[in-house]
Amino acid sequence: MALLPLPQSTAVDSHRLDAPILRSTLPVQVKGTFNYALRTLKELSQVANQTSTTVVASIAVLILETAHSVRSCKDECLLLAMQISELVLLFSESDSQAGDMYEPLIDISVLIRTLSEVHDCQKKLTKRGFFIRALEVREVKAALKRHAQDIENAIQIFRTRSSLRMQRSIVRQVKSDAQNTEEFIEQLDVLRHEIEQAGALQTVSQLHILFVPMTISDDLR
């Protein structure tokens, strides 16, 4: 399947990537998490073996980088970028477990298009105030809200698959433990039976030893 072209990177200085996020009311913890997510995605986009993961991670990096320089709806862009980083990590995990019969949870082309549209919206918000109309800001904000819902829906799909996979793993482990327990009980039964047989033979042997002298004594009489 042909992948959509990557959007062009915005002009963001590399020394600013780990700089504090300005003009944002988000907590410091969120800012630290944001910078960590950015570094993680940059590494993922460079070392991922799967082409689809590489493309998705690369667009996500552009989105997180652009979120530093938007002049309007900054908090909305940052929170959406965090959602996207979570989705990309979930997608990467799912993609790395793909087999020959793997059926993707979401359409990769749709995901790439959605991320590209988010990046386009962000680039509009990097314009200086008097270059962007208030109406355009409202339109972009509404578009970001729609994309945020789409991203959240996709996240829930991956979370559900992950939860099901974990539940199946637990069920398999429980069955394996039950089978091992059953086999152990069977072995105990066999061992107990052998012990009982050994005890019965020993008892018979003791009775035979006691019985022989008594017979000889009777004959001597």
Low-confidence runs of at least 5 consecutive residues: 1-23, 211-220
Number of strands: 0
- What does the radius of gyration come to? 34 Å
Head-to-tail CA distance between termini:
106 Å
Protein name: Fungal N-terminal domain-containing protein
GO biological process, one term: cell surface receptor signaling pathway
InterPro entries: Adaptor_Cbl_N_dom_sf (IPR036537), MLKL-like_MCAfunc (IPR059179)
Organism: Sistotremastrum suecicum HHB10207 ss-3
Walk me through what this model shows.
This is Fungal N-terminal domain-containing protein. InterPro entries: Adaptor_Cbl_N_dom_sf, MLKL-like_MCAfunc. One of its GO terms (biological process) is cell surface receptor signaling pathway. This protein is mainly alpha-helical and 221 residues long. The protein has one domain. It has helices at 28-47, 51-66, 74-96, 108-124, 134-220. Helix 1 packs across helix 3. The protein is rod-shaped and about 100 Å long.
Question: What key attributes describe this structure?
Answer:
single chain, 221 residues, mainly alpha, 5 helices
Question: What is this structure's SSE topology?
Answer:
Layout: H1 28-47, H2 51-66, H3 74-96, H4 108-124, H5 134-220
Helix pairs in contact: 1-2, 1-3, 2-3, 2-4, 3-5, 4-5
In short:
With 221 residues, the chain is mostly helical.
